[in-house]
């Protein structure tokens, strides 16, 4: 069997046809129409496929971009903005001053005369306190026990009463503003702070603090304001084992109750100091931003103007609460001002055991004020008062 070509068949039909032009043209147009229809269907098919694929890619791209946006949004990115200004006024900082001697000898020896002596009445006195005998060499009755830890038999109230008092310690406190000098109007707030001995706290006094004043604002003063302090160290009241005689000064935010030892300056006896203060303020965004800061000031106001306002003090308060809860006393190296009973013996590995736990519960403050100081000093032997 031989297959015939469609083209030849059309030609034959055209040959035998009585009207060849009409028939052949009709057949030719029908063939072209069928061919174009098939071609159009093929193009439409691939065009539909391409559109469908494009829509899929568009949807995938939209989903990817949406996910990236959500991921970026959940990270809460923030920019750091540094602004240095020189205002004409600023908040008056609070300051805390302490005498580094824990207990005054005169009132202590009146209450406990058996614990006191002098070079004339005690033959071994100068064996224990050779430097004291060399420098002072007087007959005043002073504490004769060698270890300051012996003061621990005193109650916290006795420690406050026998410590240095503000009226004798601060002989001058004035504020000079616009060439007008006035006495300090702030009532001193007694704070018992961790001393250098880690045994007995010493008396410290805060001025211009907002402690327990949650609804008050800091006093605003011109930046040219000067504060003048003159201190009487009462060195004759020192324990004879004290080799350094001086005071501790901390300049801080009015909302903050500091640890003067770790956050302050040591002031030597017989020295004039000029201290220049600059305020540095740091503001962080609260959660869910990456800073994960905590609004300590809001908590401070809720607590009636008490409690920590810095991350460091938050950790120290956490340690204090752990110590009181587990041991019934305050571990001696806790650097948070308190009136609790100090443990008689050190707690082994206390800081190591609770450092990480307390660090997890404390964050950076959302608003932090730090007073940076520049200190100039000059010796002035004539300024000594004892």
From TrEMBL:
Localization (cell): Membrane
From which organism does this entry originate? Trichonephila clavata (Joro spider)
Q: State the PANTHER family in the record.
A: AMILORIDE-SENSITIVE SODIUM CHANNEL-RELATED, PICKPOCKET 17, ISOFORM A
Swiss-Prot/TrEMBL keywords = Ion channel, Ion transport, Membrane, Sodium, Sodium channel, Sodium transport, Transmembrane, Transmembrane helix, Transport
Gene that specifies this protein = AVEN_9021_1
Protein name (Swiss-Prot/TrEMBL): Uncharacterized protein
Instruction: Write down the Pfam families for this protein, in alphabetical order.
Output: ASC (PF00858)
> Which Gene Ontology cellular component annotation is one that this UniProt entry carries?
plasma membrane
User: Which family is this protein grouped under?
Assistant: Belongs to the amiloride-sensitive sodium channel (TC 1.A.6) family.
Its placement in the membrane is given as: Multi-pass membrane protein
Concerning InterPro entries, the annotation shows: ENaC (IPR001873)
MF term (GO), any: ligand-gated sodium channel activity
The record's principal subcellular location, in a coarse class, is membrane
């Amino acid at each position: 069997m031989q297959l015939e070509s469609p083209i030849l068949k059309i030609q034959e039909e055209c040959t035998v046809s009585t009207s060849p032009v009409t028939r052949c043209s009709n057949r030719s147009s029908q063939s072209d129409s069928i061919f174009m229809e098939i071609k159009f269907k093929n193009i439409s098919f691939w065009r539909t496929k391409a559109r469908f694929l494009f829509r899929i890619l568009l949807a995938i791209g939209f989903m990817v971009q949406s996910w990236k946006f959500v991921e970026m949004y959940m990270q809460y990115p923030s920019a750091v903005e540094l602004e240095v200004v020189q205002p004409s006024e600023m908040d008056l900082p609070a300051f805390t001053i302490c005498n580094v001697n824990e207990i005054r000898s005169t009132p202590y020896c009146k209450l406990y005369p058996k614990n006191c002596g002098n070079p004339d009445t005690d033959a071994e006195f100068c064996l224990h306190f050779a430097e004291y005998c060399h420098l002072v060499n007087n007959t005043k009755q002073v504490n004769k026990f060698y270890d300051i830890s012996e003061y621990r038999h005193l109650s916290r109230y006795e420690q406050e009463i026998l410590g240095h008092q503000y009226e004798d310690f601060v002989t001058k406190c004035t504020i000079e503003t616009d060439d007008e000098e006035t006495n300090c109007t702030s009532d001193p707030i007694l704070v018992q702070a961790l001393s250098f001995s880690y045994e007995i706290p010493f008396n410290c006094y805060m001025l211009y603090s907002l402690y327990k004043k949650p609804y008050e604002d800091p006093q605003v003063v011109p930046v040219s304001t000067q504060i003048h302090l003159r201190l009487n160290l009462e060195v004759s009241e020192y324990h004879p084992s004290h080799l350094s005689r001086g005071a501790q000064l901390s300049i801080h935010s009015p909302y903050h109750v500091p640890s003067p030892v770790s956050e302050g300056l040591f002031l030597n006896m017989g020295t004039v100091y000029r201290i220049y203060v600059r305020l540095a303020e740091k503001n962080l965004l609260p959660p869910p931003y990456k800073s994960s800061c905590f609004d300590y000031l809001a908590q401070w106001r809720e607590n009636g103007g008490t409690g920590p306002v810095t991350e460091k003090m938050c950790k120290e308060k956490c340690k204090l609460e752990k110590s009181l809860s587990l041991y019934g006393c305050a571990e001696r190296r806790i650097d948070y001002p308190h009136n609790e009973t100090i443990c008689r013996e050190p707690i082994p590995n206390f800081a190591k055991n609770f450092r990480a736990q307390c660090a997890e519960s404390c964050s950076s403050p959302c608003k932090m004020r730090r007073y940076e100081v520049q200190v100039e000093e000059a010796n002035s032997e004539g300024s000594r008062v004892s």
